[in-house]
């Protein structure tokens, strides 16, 4: 188990959003305020980590033919716990995220990690994988929330700071309201993915240039 490598993959080289392109629906739909991004990201992180642990513990006794159904049952249990906890302690966040919390049951990120990693690895490695992938997802959500909220509403920290209204940075009337609409989600996500791909491919291009020069 290489903890450093797992975190590097979860945060950068195999980031679930910008590299694996998973969980696109929730990524674009709820990233309008910082409160939504942090809430959704941490919810997925908790569910992903706990599901990874349980699935890894049960991997040797789960029949191969029904493994997907078993994965969904385990994930659904933790989603229900998180959903009820949010309704009880953070009703505003629960209302804002709406159906996207229950839909975590079929979130591609969680199912992909269950099938591709936890079903083949031990408990400790699966727990680290859940934390790393969950953090990678959360960071991208937060970045998108900050950009979209600033450009679309002119504020920062919506739902958290200044009584939930956020700190106003741009005067009203200046922000591009389209950024908090679905089209803004597509544009922001495209820019984030492009930036990540440029960052990942730059060393390869530099190496190719050095080889050409050496020849």
TrEMBL record:
Annotated Gene Ontology cellular components are: endomembrane system; plasma membrane
**Enzyme class label:** translocase
**For this UniProt entry, what is the primary localization, expressed as one broad class?**
membrane
* Membrane topology type: Multi-pass membrane protein
* Name of the protein in question: Ion-translocating oxidoreductase complex subunit E
EC number of the protein = 7.-.-.-
Which compartment or compartments is the protein found in? Cell membrane; Endomembrane system
Member of which family?
Answer: Belongs to the NqrDE/RnfAE family.
Outline the subunit composition: The complex is composed of six subunits: RnfA, RnfB, RnfC, RnfD, RnfE and RnfG.
Q: Which Pfam families match?
A: Rnf-Nqr
For this UniProt entry, which segments traverse the membrane?
34-56, 68-90, 96-114, 135-156, 176-200
Q: Which InterPro entries match?
A: NqrDE/RnfAE (IPR003667), RnfE (IPR010968)
For the keyword Electron transport, the answer is yes
Q: What does this protein do?
A: Part of a membrane-bound complex that couples electron transfer with translocation of ions across the membrane.
Q: Which GO terms describe its biological process?
A: electron transport chain
Task: Tell me the keywords, alphabetical order.
Answer: Cell membrane, Electron transport, Membrane, Translocase, Transmembrane, Transmembrane helix, Transport
């Amino acid at each position: 188990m290489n903890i450093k490598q797992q975190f590097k993959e979860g945060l950068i080289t195999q980031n679930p959003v910008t590299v694996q392109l998973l969980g696109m629906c929730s990524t674009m739909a709820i990233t309008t305020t910082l409160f939504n991004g942090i809430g959704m990201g941490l919810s997925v992180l908790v569910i992903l980590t706990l599901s990874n642990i349980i699935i890894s513990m049960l991997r040797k006794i789960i029949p191969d033919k029904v493994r997907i159904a078993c994965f969904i049952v385990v994930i659904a249990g933790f989603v229900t716990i998180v959903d009820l906890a949010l309704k009880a302690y953070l009703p505003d966040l629960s209302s804002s995220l709406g159906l996207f919390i229950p839909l975590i049951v079929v979130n591609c990120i969680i199912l992909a990690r269950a099938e591709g990693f936890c079903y083949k690895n031990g408990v400790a490695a699966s727990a680290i994988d859940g934390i790393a992938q969950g953090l990678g997802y959360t960071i991208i959500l937060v970045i998108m929330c900050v950009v979209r909220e600033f450009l679309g509403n002119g504020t920062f920290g919506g739902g958290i700071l200044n009584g939930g209204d956020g700190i106003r940075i741009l005067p009203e009337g200046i922000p591009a309201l389209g950024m908090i609409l679905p089209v803004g989600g597509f544009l922001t996500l495209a820019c984030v993915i492009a930036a990540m791909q440029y960052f990942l491919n730059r060393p390869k291009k530099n190496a190719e240039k050095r080889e050409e020069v050496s020849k």
